[in-house]
Amino acid sequence: MSSSNAIKKLSKAARIILVGAPGVGKGTQSNRLITRYPQLSSIATGDLLRDHVKNKTSLGQQADAYMRGGKLVPEPLILNLILTELTSRSWITTDKSNDEIIATLGKGTTIQPSESPDCSFILDGFPRTATQAQALTHVLPMNLIFHLMTPAEIVVKRMSNRWTHASSGRVYNVGFNDPKEPGKDDVTGEPLVQRDDDKEETWRRRLSTFEETSVPLLNFYRDRSPDMVVDVQGNSSDEISPQIFAEIDKRFA
Ligand code: AMP
């Protein structure tokens, strides 16, 4: 697909959210978007949280049990995480502390983002609920929401085939990205494991949480502006990417 390999320049600031069930390939789409539009960067709250858990920070210790149980991390924790990240990347500038911002959300505190195309970004995994979306709108208004849709049975099959090398994070997929020796990491030969949240039971819990929260989330944005939300359907990432690219090219390139 030559059009998907082309590098494109944005002429307007894109502030994009990817909404989709766990395992639908939001991370894959983020990576492809960053390659195609080098002005874009990405924040994946799941990755940030996993780093906190791995580094045993206080936030990570508080988030760990929720993540293991396939539950959403409580709102104040996740808002703290996202505000720290946005400030450290200079996507928002403020002299207020996170606690002060969270305490005054919706009471006239709005931080205007830069409209330079170089300040374009994707949020992956945040906001997940209408309340998070509302909080984000006060801090940083987004301008395009993609709703990625893949049938649940296809996602389940994909997840159950995914094996990880725990210490490096290398991921293998049975059937199309197999390890050289079944069940073993190519580089170290160590055994592969299934990530707790790749297990079907955990995944089904996460899916039902997603279904409960994503409807009000998408409605929140549709109510603000119907053309802000774009539904994209596909059975694989390769079916989804060209549709996303076309929409971004149309609006921001
Ligand atoms: P992900 O890798 O995006 O599927 O996230 C993994 C886990 O991190 C989720 O199951 C939640 O426990 C937690 N998490 C990530 N993003 C959020 C969010 N926006 N709000 C609450 N919890 C989150």
From TrEMBL:
Residues noted as binding AMP in the record, renumbered to the chain: T45, R50, K71, L72, V73, G125, F126, P127, R128, Q132, R195, R206
Domain notes per entry: Consists of three domains, a large central CORE domain and two small peripheral domains, NMPbind and LID, which undergo movements during catalysis. The LID domain closes over the site of phosphoryl transfer upon GTP binding. Assembling and dissambling the active center during each catalytic cycle provides an effective means to prevent GTP hydrolysis.
Full protein name: GTP:AMP phosphotransferase, mitochondrial
Reaction equation(s) it catalyzes: a ribonucleoside 5'-triphosphate + AMP = a ribonucleoside 5'-diphosphate + ADP
Ranges for region LID: 161-198
Domain of life: Eukaryota
Compartment(s) where it occurs, according to its Swiss-Prot or TrEMBL record: Mitochondrion matrix
